[in-house]
Specification:
76% helix, 19 helices, single chain, mainly alpha, 414 residues
Amino acid sequence: MEIIIEMLVEVFLELILTALAEGIGALVVTIDGDKKLKNTLKLIFTYSILILTIFLIVMSLIYSKEFLTIIATSYMLSILILRLIKRINIDKFHNKVLDILVSIFKRIINYGYPIVLIVFSSIYLSKVSALVSIIIISSVALFKISINNEYAYARFLYYNYETKDELYRSIGIVMRLAELNHVPSIHMLAISRLEGKTLKDEKEAFKLFKKASKKGFLPSLFYLGQAYFFGQGVDKNVSKGLKIINKVSKKGFSAAKIFLANYYLGAYEEIQDYEKAFNYYNAALKSNNPNGYYGLANMYLQGWYVKKDVNEAFKNYDIASSYEIIDATLMCAHLLISKQVEETDKYKAINYYKKASYHKDPEGMYFYGTHLILGKDCTQDKEEGYRLINEAALLGNEDAQKIINGKRDLKNGN
């Protein structure tokens, strides 16, 4: 009984520490003053927490008589560090190195602690009932972690598959996890049915989105709203769809904010409210969605609600491009090539096209390919240029198809 009470107290402490981490992180993120002040505060908070962590673990090892307290305390503090790193670096979430390091550290923690707990329990716990409880709890934790990691693998395969076998393997994993009532897998299975990469069934997708949304999964609730809005797998009901999407937006789901911003720009219906669109794009940025930069860039470029400012548009496109939003990357290149902005580095424009090409964007392949063929503002490489043109044509780029079919001549740059 004492063990159970102690574990409940530790869970309560974890909640307090988590709230503390979120609060500190939110405070740091919302500072909009001098960048030096912001970076200084980040440094102070980071090292303060690290020092506190080391101090508490050492004190636990010296004075604690219960190994369970040591393990639980160090685990909670490790999770606290991870959450703080994520929060205080929220404006750098596109930092791939940081993401990889955090992911590795998180996996070590999540797999290591339950195993350590089982090992130490079997060595030091004399009460069989307490030992059994620890083993069961730790085993359940390991099972849950393994499911989440398997889902992450399936999701990666689905969006980065190179062969049909990899695609079908990802769907197979997701279907198996969905049968275990794993909510993210139910959601992803719904997406696969909606997109139809293997089997298109909008009605089935709608049912799955509804099932996951009832369990409080916001992405599914958002897709459910879109299903009603567009009539995907259910009778079209724009007002009901908007009501659901507004609800999701108010709960902080950034994709819903982007949807509403696009809606008020007139992307889906003949309705325009540029002020609302502008506010929703900014709200999306506060929710850490970089698509907000792309939306604001379009508004500055066209002069919607704000004064037309091509340089401000380029600035926002450039930021969006750094987050791998390829449409923004292409816009940066187009603005540079057309000399509409103060920046005049043509070689930089070619690099934007190269980046889009690397991401298998047909338009990027076409433009980068033509520059390579002509040797315009870059080192000439006809072989690579025509390879890219061919690939762009296969992906449906009409300009590339005209070159392949002999309807366009690049010799004179036409």
